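User: I'm curious whether this sequence folds into something compact or stays loose and floppy. Could you predict its structure so I can see for myself?
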Amino acid sequence: MSETALEARHLYKVFGKNPNQAVKRLKAGETRDDVKDAGTAAVIDASFTVNRGEIFVIMGLSGSGKSTLIRMLNGLHDITDGEVIIGDDDIATASPARLREIRRERVSMVFQHFALLPHRTVAANVAYPLELRGVGKAERLQKAEEILALVGLGGWGDKLPGELSGGMQQRVGIARALAADTDILLMDEAFSALDPLIRREMQEQLVDLQAKLQKTIVFITHDLNEAMFLGDRIAVMRDGRIVQIGTPEDILTDPANDYVEQFVQDVDRARVLTAANVMERPRPVISETAGPRTALRQMRDAYMSATYVVGRDRTLLGIVTDRDAVKLVRKGSNDLRTVLKPAPQSVNEDSVLMDLFVPAVESVLPLAVTDAEGRLVGVIPRITLLAALGPGTTATEELTLPLQPMPQAIINEVLGEPADTVGTPVVGGGAAFFDASTGSATQKGEVL
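Assistant: Here's the prediction. I'll summarize afterward.
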């Protein structure tokens, strides 16, 4: 089965008296304003693919053309020029009868203002697509109840839409689209009419539903935070054109132009960026088979007072501190496993930054980042976590830490090396030095 669920190829939509002439002039290089005498260009040369099972978000301000574009994907708006390919069908050339079949079997839609039938019960609204297909009443109502339970409305099937809150009515709209059991779900500003708290709840429920059902979703929004939260990929529109397509991280960290950069400047980065986006190469790290001298050398060179310990497959096993390693050397033992301590904190590489603050504060080392198999793939120093959120403390600023680690001269003595040193490593610190005269640690460097 093809990985592409839907493909848009050079789409144009012009409203007005001479749309074909307007398209010709646009292709020749004229602007949207230039062709106003021939018509209003709502969508200009839009091309993209939507992969099976992804949430593809089309985002833009009012007048950008996003709502017109989504209606072109199922034929609700005629296509002035270009192609929309779904399976073996081109929406632009499909007959009216075939378009109706595609809407029943391949593409369903959730509207901003619910569009429920007020005189029908909730269950009957959900079952309506099945009724159009000729499914028997008992079967379609049973299916409706199953889907209502899936969206958190079990037991509400016999109510009328007017008896439900706005958020509940939108859930009915989603349930109705799911009842159609189509491959592709189009959602046009589906949550924008809801109160902020309900809207957030609906966004989270959509993500949960998508994890279970793996539908292909094209979602329209003007809300950047919503786009960043929901989208596997995002297309940013301006004045009818798509100006950038990319993952939320791409859009946030590598905007294509000044417009996109300005658009994303106020985004809540803590809900978008993940541990994998900001993590650094893990260090110091040693194998469980290494000896205490190797551990001490790694800690000294990295200016830290502990090191992560991993297995042969890089599975995170725990940490060893400088004090414990020194004790082993003096006892003549080489087995680090006897002094291995649990890692103070670790997070998955897919965790968003907003979930990392408490673990980072509780960890005496830069926060360990692991993959799904528990392998250590990176670390996040606290200063890096703060810097990733935008303006504020940077990694080159000086910080004072009330720490009392082992003097580095002792470590050098144990290693049989010269005792002179510029400082003492700080737990969790990089390029950080203990000042015996003040009893504090002053740090300048890349990690905290």
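Summary: The chain has a mean pLDDT of 83. The CA atoms of residues 172 and 236 lie 29 Å apart.
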